[in-house]
Amino acid sequence: MAEDIATGRLPEGTRLPPHRELAYQLDVSPNTTSRAYGEAVKRALLRGEVGRGTFVRSTDTDPTQAEPETLRRSDSGPIDLSRNLPMSGFSEQHIRRVMSEIANDTGLRSLLDYQTDADLEHHRAAGQTWLASCGLSSEINCIVPIVGGQHGILCILMALMQPGDLLLAEALTYTPVLAMAARLNLQIGGVAMDEEGVVPEAFEAWCREANPKAFYMTPTLQAPTTVTLSQARRTRIAEIATRFGVILIEDDVFGPLKSDKPEPLAKIAPEAAIYVTSLSKAVAPGLRVGFLNAPTKLAAALHLSVNLSVWMAPPLTLEVASRLIEDGTAAELTGQQQRIARVRQQLVQRILGVAVIPKLSDGFHVWLTLPEGWRADVFTAECARLGVRVSEGRSFAINAGDAPEAIRLCVSHEANEVRLQRGLEIVAGVLRQKPSGSSMAI
In what residue span(s) does the HTH gntR-type domain sit (predicted)? Predict the structure, then answer.
Protein backbone atom coordinates (compact mmCIF):
# COMPACT_ATOMS: atom_id res chain seq x y z
CA MET A 1 0.00 0.00 0.00
CA ALA A 2 2.82 2.40 0.94
CA GLU A 3 4.59 1.65 -2.33
CA ASP A 4 1.44 2.18 -4.41
CA ILE A 5 0.79 5.51 -2.72
CA ALA A 6 4.40 6.63 -3.16
CA THR A 7 4.40 5.74 -6.87
CA GLY A 8 0.97 7.26 -7.55
CA ARG A 9 -0.80 4.00 -8.33
CA LEU A 10 -3.14 4.93 -5.46
CA PRO A 11 -3.68 8.69 -5.99
CA GLU A 12 -4.53 10.98 -3.08
CA GLY A 13 -8.24 10.96 -2.29
CA THR A 14 -8.71 7.35 -3.42
CA ARG A 15 -11.39 5.61 -1.33
CA LEU A 16 -10.21 2.18 -0.16
CA PRO A 17 -12.56 -0.78 0.33
CA PRO A 18 -13.64 -1.74 3.86
CA HIS A 19 -11.02 -3.90 5.49
CA ARG A 20 -13.28 -6.99 5.49
CA GLU A 21 -13.93 -6.63 1.78
CA LEU A 22 -10.22 -6.25 1.08
CA ALA A 23 -9.49 -9.30 3.24
CA TYR A 24 -11.92 -11.32 1.10
CA GLN A 25 -10.29 -10.06 -2.13
CA LEU A 26 -6.79 -10.91 -0.91
CA ASP A 27 -7.79 -14.15 0.82
CA VAL A 28 -6.31 -13.07 4.15
CA SER A 29 -7.68 -12.61 7.64
CA PRO A 30 -9.77 -9.46 8.32
CA ASN A 31 -7.48 -8.95 11.29
CA THR A 32 -4.55 -8.65 8.88
CA THR A 33 -6.17 -5.95 6.75
CA SER A 34 -7.41 -4.13 9.83
CA ARG A 35 -3.87 -4.00 11.22
CA ALA A 36 -2.56 -2.86 7.83
CA TYR A 37 -5.06 0.01 7.68
CA GLY A 38 -4.13 0.97 11.25
CA GLU A 39 -0.43 1.00 10.37
CA ALA A 40 -1.11 3.11 7.27
CA VAL A 41 -3.04 5.64 9.34
CA LYS A 42 -0.17 5.68 11.84
CA ARG A 43 2.24 6.48 9.00
CA ALA A 44 -0.13 9.22 7.78
CA LEU A 45 -0.68 7.45 4.46
CA LEU A 46 -4.44 7.16 5.00
CA ARG A 47 -7.19 9.13 6.74
CA GLY A 48 -10.47 7.83 8.08
CA GLU A 49 -13.75 9.73 7.84
CA VAL A 50 -16.62 8.61 10.07
CA GLY A 51 -19.51 7.32 7.95
CA ARG A 52 -17.57 7.71 4.67
CA GLY A 53 -14.64 5.31 4.76
CA THR A 54 -10.85 5.33 4.45
CA PHE A 55 -9.01 7.53 1.93
CA VAL A 56 -5.46 8.07 0.69
CA ARG A 57 -4.20 11.17 2.48
CA SER A 58 -3.16 14.24 0.50
CA THR A 59 0.58 14.93 0.67
CA ASP A 60 -0.32 18.57 1.28
CA THR A 61 -2.40 17.80 4.38
CA ASP A 62 -1.59 20.00 7.34
CA PRO A 63 -0.04 17.73 10.02
CA THR A 64 -2.01 19.58 12.68
CA GLN A 65 -5.22 18.30 11.05
CA ALA A 66 -4.24 14.64 11.40
CA GLU A 67 -6.48 12.19 13.22
CA PRO A 68 -6.14 12.35 17.02
CA GLU A 69 -4.60 8.85 17.19
CA THR A 70 -1.99 9.80 14.57
CA LEU A 71 -1.15 12.98 16.45
CA ARG A 72 -0.82 11.13 19.74
CA ARG A 73 1.63 8.70 18.23
CA SER A 74 3.56 11.24 16.15
CA ASP A 75 4.07 13.57 19.11
CA SER A 76 5.83 10.96 21.23
CA GLY A 77 9.57 11.55 21.47
CA PRO A 78 12.08 13.48 19.37
CA ILE A 79 11.93 13.24 15.59
CA ASP A 80 14.97 11.14 14.69
CA LEU A 81 16.77 12.17 11.50
CA SER A 82 20.09 10.79 12.74
CA ARG A 83 19.77 7.03 12.05
CA ASN A 84 20.57 5.77 8.57
CA LEU A 85 18.23 2.78 8.31
CA PRO A 86 15.87 1.58 5.57
CA MET A 87 12.13 2.10 5.72
CA SER A 88 10.64 -0.49 8.03
CA GLY A 89 7.60 -2.65 7.43
CA PHE A 90 8.18 -3.91 3.89
CA SER A 91 10.05 -7.09 4.75
CA GLU A 92 8.00 -8.39 7.69
CA GLN A 93 5.41 -10.38 5.77
CA HIS A 94 8.05 -11.97 3.55
CA ILE A 95 10.31 -12.92 6.45
CA ARG A 96 7.31 -14.31 8.31
CA ARG A 97 6.51 -16.47 5.25
CA VAL A 98 10.08 -17.74 4.89
CA MET A 99 10.39 -18.52 8.59
CA SER A 100 7.17 -20.50 8.42
CA GLU A 101 8.51 -22.47 5.45
CA ILE A 102 11.76 -23.17 7.30
CA ALA A 103 9.89 -24.25 10.44
CA ASN A 104 8.01 -26.87 8.42
CA ASP A 105 11.08 -27.96 6.47
CA THR A 106 12.86 -31.22 7.26
CA GLY A 107 16.17 -29.32 6.93
CA LEU A 108 15.54 -27.17 10.00
CA ARG A 109 17.53 -29.48 12.28
CA SER A 110 20.74 -28.93 10.32
CA LEU A 111 20.35 -25.14 10.64
CA LEU A 112 20.42 -25.46 14.42
CA ASP A 113 23.81 -27.16 14.47
CA TYR A 114 27.39 -26.12 13.76
CA GLN A 115 28.07 -25.72 10.07
CA THR A 116 31.00 -26.79 7.96
CA ASP A 117 32.21 -25.02 4.81
CA ALA A 118 30.32 -27.63 2.79
CA ASP A 119 27.11 -26.83 4.69
CA LEU A 120 27.51 -23.16 3.81
CA GLU A 121 27.81 -23.86 0.08
CA HIS A 122 24.22 -22.99 -0.82
CA HIS A 123 24.37 -19.85 1.35
CA ARG A 124 27.47 -18.74 -0.52
CA ALA A 125 25.61 -19.48 -3.76
CA ALA A 126 22.87 -17.08 -2.64
CA GLY A 127 25.62 -14.58 -1.84
CA GLN A 128 26.89 -15.03 -5.38
CA THR A 129 23.44 -14.07 -6.69
CA TRP A 130 23.29 -11.03 -4.40
CA LEU A 131 26.79 -9.94 -5.47
CA ALA A 132 25.76 -10.27 -9.12
CA SER A 133 22.86 -7.89 -8.47
CA CYS A 134 25.47 -5.46 -7.11
CA GLY A 135 27.43 -5.68 -10.36
CA LEU A 136 30.08 -8.14 -9.26
CA SER A 137 30.67 -11.71 -10.42
CA SER A 138 32.44 -13.92 -7.91
CA GLU A 139 33.80 -17.40 -7.36
CA ILE A 140 32.03 -19.39 -4.64
CA ASN A 141 35.24 -19.97 -2.68
CA CYS A 142 35.88 -16.21 -2.53
CA ILE A 143 32.57 -15.46 -0.79
CA VAL A 144 32.55 -15.17 3.00
CA PRO A 145 29.18 -14.90 4.84
CA ILE A 146 29.24 -12.26 7.59
CA VAL A 147 26.93 -10.93 10.30
CA GLY A 148 26.24 -7.59 8.59
CA GLY A 149 28.59 -5.08 7.03
CA GLN A 150 30.08 -3.74 10.26
CA HIS A 151 31.07 -7.25 11.33
CA GLY A 152 32.63 -7.78 7.91
CA ILE A 153 34.76 -4.65 8.21
CA LEU A 154 35.99 -5.67 11.65
CA CYS A 155 36.87 -9.16 10.35
CA ILE A 156 38.85 -7.62 7.49
CA LEU A 157 40.85 -5.39 9.81
CA MET A 158 41.51 -8.30 12.18
CA ALA A 159 42.67 -10.49 9.30
CA LEU A 160 44.87 -7.98 7.48
CA MET A 161 46.36 -5.61 10.01
CA GLN A 162 48.71 -5.62 12.96
CA PRO A 163 48.93 -3.04 15.79
CA GLY A 164 50.67 0.06 14.48
CA ASP A 165 49.70 -0.50 10.82
CA LEU A 166 48.29 2.48 8.95
CA LEU A 167 44.67 2.34 7.81
CA LEU A 168 43.47 5.04 5.43
CA ALA A 169 39.88 6.21 5.18
CA GLU A 170 38.07 9.08 3.54
CA ALA A 171 38.45 12.31 5.53
CA LEU A 172 34.74 11.98 6.41
CA THR A 173 33.95 8.35 7.09
CA TYR A 174 31.75 5.73 8.74
CA THR A 175 32.21 6.45 12.45
CA PRO A 176 32.51 2.83 13.76
CA VAL A 177 35.65 2.40 11.65
CA LEU A 178 37.36 5.00 13.83
CA ALA A 179 36.40 3.02 16.94
CA MET A 180 37.62 -0.23 15.36
CA ALA A 181 40.98 1.33 14.49
CA ALA A 182 41.39 2.59 18.05
CA ARG A 183 40.43 -0.80 19.54
CA LEU A 184 42.91 -2.64 17.28
CA ASN A 185 45.62 -0.04 17.95
CA LEU A 186 45.87 0.99 14.32
CA GLN A 187 47.05 4.31 13.01
CA ILE A 188 44.46 6.02 10.84
CA GLY A 189 44.88 8.69 8.18
CA GLY A 190 42.25 10.75 6.40
CA VAL A 191 42.41 11.00 2.60
CA ALA A 192 41.29 14.41 1.32
CA MET A 193 37.94 14.75 -0.44
CA ASP A 194 36.36 17.31 -2.73
CA GLU A 195 32.84 17.71 -4.12
CA GLU A 196 33.38 14.60 -6.29
CA GLY A 197 34.58 12.38 -3.47
CA VAL A 198 37.98 11.08 -2.46
CA VAL A 199 40.89 12.72 -4.33
CA PRO A 200 43.12 10.13 -6.06
CA GLU A 201 46.22 12.35 -5.85
CA ALA A 202 45.78 12.60 -2.08
CA PHE A 203 45.60 8.80 -1.86
CA GLU A 204 48.77 8.48 -3.95
CA ALA A 205 50.58 10.96 -1.70
CA TRP A 206 49.75 8.84 1.36
CA CYS A 207 51.02 5.74 -0.48
CA ARG A 208 54.31 7.41 -1.39
CA GLU A 209 54.97 8.86 2.05
CA ALA A 210 53.45 6.60 4.70
CA ASN A 211 53.22 2.94 3.55
CA PRO A 212 49.52 2.33 4.35
CA LYS A 213 48.29 -1.26 4.60
CA ALA A 214 44.66 -0.71 3.56
CA PHE A 215 42.23 1.97 2.43
CA TYR A 216 38.62 1.79 3.67
CA MET A 217 36.09 3.68 1.56
CA THR A 218 32.41 3.88 0.58
CA PRO A 219 32.56 4.86 -3.10
CA THR A 220 28.78 4.63 -3.66
CA LEU A 221 26.44 6.98 -1.75
CA GLN A 222 29.35 7.84 0.48
CA ALA A 223 28.67 7.99 4.20
CA PRO A 224 28.08 10.76 5.11
CA THR A 225 28.37 13.01 2.02
CA THR A 226 26.19 10.93 -0.41
CA VAL A 227 28.78 11.37 -3.20
CA THR A 228 29.17 8.50 -5.67
CA LEU A 229 32.71 8.23 -7.02
CA SER A 230 32.98 8.44 -10.81
CA GLN A 231 34.23 5.59 -12.96
CA ALA A 232 37.36 7.57 -13.82
CA ARG A 233 38.28 8.11 -10.17
CA ARG A 234 37.58 4.49 -9.32
CA THR A 235 39.91 3.36 -12.09
CA ARG A 236 42.62 5.75 -10.89
CA ILE A 237 42.32 4.65 -7.25
CA ALA A 238 42.40 0.97 -8.25
CA GLU A 239 45.55 1.58 -10.26
CA ILE A 240 47.27 3.36 -7.36
CA ALA A 241 46.30 0.64 -4.88
CA THR A 242 47.59 -2.10 -7.20
CA ARG A 243 50.87 -0.29 -7.80
CA PHE A 244 51.59 0.29 -4.12
CA GLY A 245 50.18 -3.00 -2.80
CA VAL A 246 47.42 -1.37 -0.72
CA ILE A 247 44.27 -3.40 -0.08
CA LEU A 248 41.04 -1.53 -0.84
CA ILE A 249 38.16 -2.22 1.55
CA GLU A 250 35.11 -1.34 -0.53
CA ASP A 251 32.06 -0.84 1.69
CA ASP A 252 29.10 -1.01 -0.69
CA VAL A 253 26.19 -1.53 1.70
CA PHE A 254 24.42 1.43 0.08
CA GLY A 255 25.18 0.15 -3.43
CA PRO A 256 21.88 -1.73 -3.90
CA LEU A 257 20.03 1.60 -3.52
CA LYS A 258 21.93 3.25 -6.38
CA SER A 259 20.28 2.62 -9.73
CA ASP A 260 23.12 3.67 -12.03
CA LYS A 261 26.33 3.23 -10.05
CA PRO A 262 29.71 2.73 -11.75
CA GLU A 263 31.58 -0.56 -11.60
CA PRO A 264 32.72 -1.73 -8.16
CA LEU A 265 36.40 -1.28 -7.36
CA ALA A 266 36.49 -5.05 -6.77
CA LYS A 267 35.59 -5.57 -10.43
CA ILE A 268 38.22 -3.12 -11.67
CA ALA A 269 40.98 -4.56 -9.44
CA PRO A 270 39.80 -7.98 -8.19
CA GLU A 271 43.11 -8.86 -6.52
CA ALA A 272 43.41 -5.51 -4.73
CA ALA A 273 39.91 -5.03 -3.27
CA ILE A 274 37.73 -6.73 -0.68
CA TYR A 275 34.06 -6.03 -1.33
CA VAL A 276 31.60 -5.67 1.57
CA THR A 277 27.87 -5.93 1.03
CA SER A 278 24.86 -6.72 3.19
CA LEU A 279 21.07 -6.85 3.15
CA SER A 280 20.81 -4.31 5.97
CA LYS A 281 20.11 -1.15 3.95
CA ALA A 282 17.93 -2.74 1.27
CA VAL A 283 16.02 -5.62 2.91
CA ALA A 284 16.04 -5.74 6.75
CA PRO A 285 18.73 -4.50 9.16
CA GLY A 286 17.72 -7.03 11.81
CA LEU A 287 18.69 -9.99 9.64
CA ARG A 288 22.38 -9.10 10.11
CA VAL A 289 23.41 -10.95 6.97
CA GLY A 290 26.06 -9.90 4.50
CA PHE A 291 28.85 -11.19 2.29
CA LEU A 292 32.48 -10.44 1.65
CA ASN A 293 33.99 -10.99 -1.77
CA ALA A 294 37.72 -11.53 -1.27
CA PRO A 295 40.73 -11.85 -3.55
CA THR A 296 41.66 -15.52 -3.81
CA LYS A 297 44.83 -15.00 -1.77
CA LEU A 298 42.88 -13.48 1.17
CA ALA A 299 39.74 -15.65 1.30
CA ALA A 300 41.14 -18.19 3.78
CA ALA A 301 42.32 -15.46 6.17
CA LEU A 302 38.90 -13.84 6.12
CA HIS A 303 37.13 -17.14 6.76
CA LEU A 304 39.43 -17.63 9.76
CA SER A 305 38.68 -14.13 11.03
CA VAL A 306 34.94 -14.82 10.92
CA ASN A 307 35.52 -18.10 12.76
CA LEU A 308 37.53 -16.26 15.40
CA SER A 309 34.84 -13.61 15.97
CA VAL A 310 31.58 -15.61 15.83
CA TRP A 311 32.65 -19.09 14.68
CA MET A 312 30.08 -18.89 11.88
CA ALA A 313 27.43 -16.55 10.59
CA PRO A 314 24.15 -17.84 12.12
CA PRO A 315 22.82 -20.53 9.74
CA LEU A 316 19.16 -19.74 10.47
CA THR A 317 19.35 -16.07 9.43
CA LEU A 318 21.57 -17.01 6.50
CA GLU A 319 18.88 -19.42 5.37
CA VAL A 320 16.18 -16.74 5.63
CA ALA A 321 18.30 -14.31 3.63
CA SER A 322 19.24 -16.96 1.06
CA ARG A 323 15.61 -17.85 0.38
CA LEU A 324 14.69 -14.18 0.00
CA ILE A 325 17.52 -13.75 -2.49
CA GLU A 326 16.79 -16.92 -4.44
CA ASP A 327 13.06 -16.36 -4.89
CA GLY A 328 13.51 -12.75 -5.98
CA THR A 329 11.97 -11.19 -2.86
CA ALA A 330 15.21 -9.43 -1.88
CA ALA A 331 15.34 -7.75 -5.29
CA GLU A 332 11.68 -6.74 -4.97
CA LEU A 333 12.26 -5.25 -1.51
CA THR A 334 15.32 -3.40 -2.79
CA GLY A 335 13.19 -1.88 -5.53
CA GLN A 336 10.65 -0.72 -2.96
CA GLN A 337 13.37 0.91 -0.88
CA GLN A 338 14.73 2.65 -3.99
CA ARG A 339 11.33 4.09 -4.85
CA ILE A 340 10.64 5.27 -1.31
CA ALA A 341 14.12 6.83 -1.15
CA ARG A 342 13.40 8.89 -4.27
CA VAL A 343 10.06 10.07 -2.91
CA ARG A 344 11.62 11.11 0.40
CA GLN A 345 14.58 12.80 -1.28
CA GLN A 346 12.08 14.86 -3.27
CA LEU A 347 10.29 15.74 -0.03
CA VAL A 348 13.58 16.99 1.43
CA GLN A 349 14.22 19.16 -1.60
CA ARG A 350 10.68 20.51 -1.60
CA ILE A 351 10.85 21.54 2.06
CA LEU A 352 14.47 22.74 2.29
CA GLY A 353 14.57 24.20 -1.22
CA VAL A 354 16.55 23.54 -4.38
CA ALA A 355 19.08 26.20 -3.39
CA VAL A 356 19.87 24.23 -0.22
CA ILE A 357 19.61 20.74 -1.78
CA PRO A 358 20.48 21.28 -5.46
CA LYS A 359 21.09 17.61 -6.25
CA LEU A 360 19.27 14.50 -5.05
CA SER A 361 20.90 11.15 -4.33
CA ASP A 362 19.32 7.70 -4.40
CA GLY A 363 19.98 6.99 -0.75
CA PHE A 364 18.35 7.63 2.58
CA HIS A 365 20.66 10.38 3.80
CA VAL A 366 21.31 13.98 2.84
CA TRP A 367 24.46 16.02 3.43
CA LEU A 368 23.61 19.62 4.28
CA THR A 369 26.33 22.27 4.20
CA LEU A 370 25.28 25.05 6.57
CA PRO A 371 25.00 28.72 5.62
CA GLU A 372 27.90 30.97 6.49
CA GLY A 373 27.87 31.91 10.15
CA TRP A 374 26.39 28.66 11.49
CA ARG A 375 28.52 26.25 13.50
CA ALA A 376 27.39 22.67 13.11
CA ASP A 377 27.42 21.92 16.84
CA VAL A 378 25.22 24.93 17.57
CA PHE A 379 22.87 24.10 14.69
CA THR A 380 22.59 20.51 15.92
CA ALA A 381 21.87 21.68 19.46
CA GLU A 382 19.18 24.09 18.23
CA CYS A 383 17.48 21.31 16.26
CA ALA A 384 17.63 19.07 19.34
CA ARG A 385 16.08 21.84 21.46
CA LEU A 386 13.19 21.91 18.98
CA GLY A 387 12.79 18.12 19.10
CA VAL A 388 14.76 16.96 16.03
CA ARG A 389 17.87 14.81 16.12
CA VAL A 390 20.44 15.29 13.36
CA SER A 391 24.10 14.24 13.03
CA GLU A 392 26.85 16.82 13.19
CA GLY A 393 29.40 16.59 10.37
CA ARG A 394 32.30 16.66 12.81
CA SER A 395 31.31 13.24 14.19
CA PHE A 396 32.34 11.66 10.86
CA ALA A 397 35.70 13.44 10.58
CA ILE A 398 39.03 11.73 11.14
CA ASN A 399 40.53 15.13 11.95
CA ALA A 400 37.84 17.14 13.73
CA GLY A 401 39.58 20.43 12.98
CA ASP A 402 39.18 19.83 9.24
CA ALA A 403 35.46 19.02 9.40
CA PRO A 404 33.12 21.23 7.39
CA GLU A 405 30.23 23.02 9.05
CA ALA A 406 27.63 20.51 7.87
CA ILE A 407 25.04 18.05 9.14
CA ARG A 408 23.65 14.73 7.93
CA LEU A 409 19.91 14.18 7.71
CA CYS A 410 18.47 10.65 7.44
CA VAL A 411 14.98 10.43 6.02
CA SER A 412 14.07 6.76 6.41
CA HIS A 413 14.12 5.94 10.10
CA GLU A 414 10.91 7.89 10.76
CA ALA A 415 8.19 5.69 9.23
CA ASN A 416 5.46 8.27 9.87
CA GLU A 417 5.69 10.82 7.05
CA VAL A 418 3.91 13.44 9.18
CA ARG A 419 6.79 13.25 11.65
CA LEU A 420 9.38 13.36 8.87
CA GLN A 421 7.76 16.38 7.25
CA ARG A 422 7.49 18.13 10.62
CA GLY A 423 11.16 17.43 11.34
CA LEU A 424 12.29 18.76 7.98
CA GLU A 425 10.18 21.88 8.44
CA ILE A 426 11.87 22.47 11.81
CA VAL A 427 15.30 22.08 10.18
CA ALA A 428 14.24 24.50 7.42
CA GLY A 429 13.08 26.97 10.08
CA VAL A 430 16.44 26.80 11.85
CA LEU A 431 18.19 27.36 8.52
CA ARG A 432 16.19 30.55 8.06
CA GLN A 433 17.29 31.88 11.45
CA LYS A 434 20.10 34.38 11.63
CA PRO A 435 22.90 32.78 13.66
CA SER A 436 23.58 34.41 17.00
CA GLY A 437 27.07 35.52 17.97
CA SER A 438 27.69 32.21 19.73
CA SER A 439 26.84 30.39 16.50
CA MET A 440 29.49 32.06 14.43
CA ALA A 441 32.12 29.74 13.00
CA ILE A 442 35.58 30.44 14.38
Answer: 1-59
